[in-house]
Amino acid sequence: MYIEMKNKDGLVEIYGQLVDLVGIENTEKIYYTLRGQQIVFPMRLYKTEFISKEVRRRYNGKNLKELANEYGYTERYLRSFIKSDGRNE
Questions:
Q1: Is the pTM of this model over 0.90?
Q2: How far apart, in whole angstroms, are the C-alpha atoms of residue 57 and residue 27?
Q3: Closest of 63, 72, 5, 31 to residue 82, by C-alpha
């Protein structure tokens, strides 16, 4: 059964939140594509391998704190990427 969403008044709460984030049309696409599935979003947006490469690429010897804040990791953790030569990725 297909019901076109006109507004969020009758929607289940999570779909109302999605409407606020991405709009009615995109919420509808998400619903019809993923309905019935359990979805868990990881706390981290980026893969560790990507962060490691980016930190090594962008690190200039003075910006570790800035990179740590940007990616949401500790300076100590990012330092381990800088010491790594990337062969394990």
A1: no
A2: 37
A3: 63
**The one-letter amino acid at 85:** D
SS (H, E, C) 22-67: HCHHHHHHHHHHHCCCCCCCCCCCCCHHHHHHHHHHHCCCCCHHHH
Instruction: List, for residues 18-60, the tens digit of each pLDDT value.
Output: 999 999 889 989 999 999 999 999 998 899 999 999 999 999 9
CA 48 vs CA 19, 71, 87: distances in Å: 30, 10, 14
- What is the per-residue pLDDT for 1? 44
Integer angstrom CA distances of residue 64 from 21, 26, 51: 32, 37, 13
Q: Tell me which amino acid residue 51 is.
A: I
